[in-house]
């Protein structure tokens, strides 16, 4: 059969596509498997479904999307991971059992010698860990000290550092503003191995030109977080939109705390904010340079 020049070109293109598709088939299959090795995939699933998690924390999975988030960061169950400032331990519930068999988890928290809020926060976290030792007794709790002081984990030992919704606290004037935030990023930088990954989740302010420098509403722009991390020596790797919430208008009377789970609003307005869901968030991936 005679083929015109156009038909010959179409056939060549079709064959090229088939070759590329065959070459990429393993990668496509891997992506369908959430980009995780089998052991890590099973470990995360088991942790998310674990009986140690409360119904209230499970209900937040739809907004926090832990499996997608850890996949984006490149988490593996055999990693040494640092969860910087774990708060009440929402993510610790997933990370601790996920690395229990073949990895390690450090959880740097507030000092017990801090103020009332800090004491209550770390006491609640330690109580949580002590209540379920078969899940948490291998978690190494360390103290967040002054920059350059006792490290939050052995220097250059971690494969990954993660921190969730904390950057707005670091840029507050009382914490030193942007300079204080850079110091905090440097603390995370120095415990990562060369080539190690930093994963950041934070409430997203949509326009860096109009954000509150003090982050009094709890929101920070992506551009600002990236600039702060770079100033501490990190390389920016990627961003993900899987935590975006287009219903979040970012203009709530009590900032992000107006939204779930805090619902700092009048009883008459709480249902309105429940329908919005949790805040619009960024997920950013950084790397400590290999050299």
The CATH topology of the largest domain is given as Rossmann fold
- List the domain count as a whole number: 2
Q: Characterize the biggest β-sheet.
A: 8 strands, mixed
At CATH's second level, what is the architecture of the largest domain?
3-Layer(aba) Sandwich
Secondary structure: helix percent = 40-55%
Shape: globular
Sketch the topology as an H/E string, one letter per element.
HHHHHEHEHHEEHHEEHEHE
Q: Evaluate the radius of gyration.
A: 22 Å
Mean pLDDT: 90
Describe this structure in words.
The protein is α/β, with parallel strands linked by helices and 291 residues long. It folds into two domains: 1-32; 36-287, Rossmann fold (3-Layer(aba) Sandwich). It contains twelve helices and eight strands. Strands 1, 2, 3, 4, 5, 6, 7 and 8 form an eight-stranded mixed β-sheet that branches. The protein is globular, with a radius of gyration of 22 Å.
Task: Give the topology, please.
Layout: H1 5-32, H2 38-49, H3 55-59, H4 61-64, H5 66-73, E1 80-83, H6 92-99, E2 104-109, H7 116-131, H8 133-136, E3 140-143, E4 158-164, H9 167-170, H10 177-191, E5 192-205, E6 220-221, H11 222-231, E7 235-240, H12 270-276, E8 281-287
Quick structural overview:
By secondary structure, this protein is of the alpha/beta class.
Question: What labels describe this entry?
Answer:
single chain, 291 residues, alpha/beta, Rossmann fold, eight-stranded mixed sheet, 8 strands, 42% helix, 17% strand, disordered N terminus
